[in-house]
Amino acid sequence: MGQCQTGRHWAKAKARAKRAAAAAAEPQLKGIVTKLFCRQGFYLQANPDGSIQGTPEDTSSFTHFNLIPVGLRVVTIQSAKLGHYMAMNAEGLLYSSPHFTAECRFKECVFENYYVLYASALYRQRRSGRAWYLGLDKEGRVMKGNRVKKTKAAAHFVPKLLEVAMYREPSLHSVPETSPPSPPAP
How many C-beta atoms surround the C-beta of residue 170 within 10 A? Predict the structure, then answer.
């Protein structure tokens, strides 16, 4: 009798593991497909060559982005057309990455005027601790993150909702939670 119960126990455990594996393959995160309109008058656009810029035209499919939550008030911005992730490097330059990395995470916060700001979750000013923000200048060019101030129009975005979608979680197990080591002081 003990042998039979043990067999049933293993069969149930195996079935639970199979259901859990199937659930893991299903999309688990609710995010949005959106256009990001900057207060400067441009829509954020990811070009096929990997560059990022602003465009005044809202008809381009390259202006569609997936905002995928990857933490509490932390999102990743993925081009809906190309599948590339927006990322900010250690120099504050915005670039397009085909893979999800720690540089692809942005803190999303609503400013006093109800515009949304996107700050690098990994990098900030070394001395002051001021965040590095995603921003577009008056010509629609991407600005270096360390040059964008949160009070300026360059950093203010309005996400224009296109649809709500479900996403698989990006592979976070390979993304470090800590910031990179600081270089030695001079």
Answer: 19
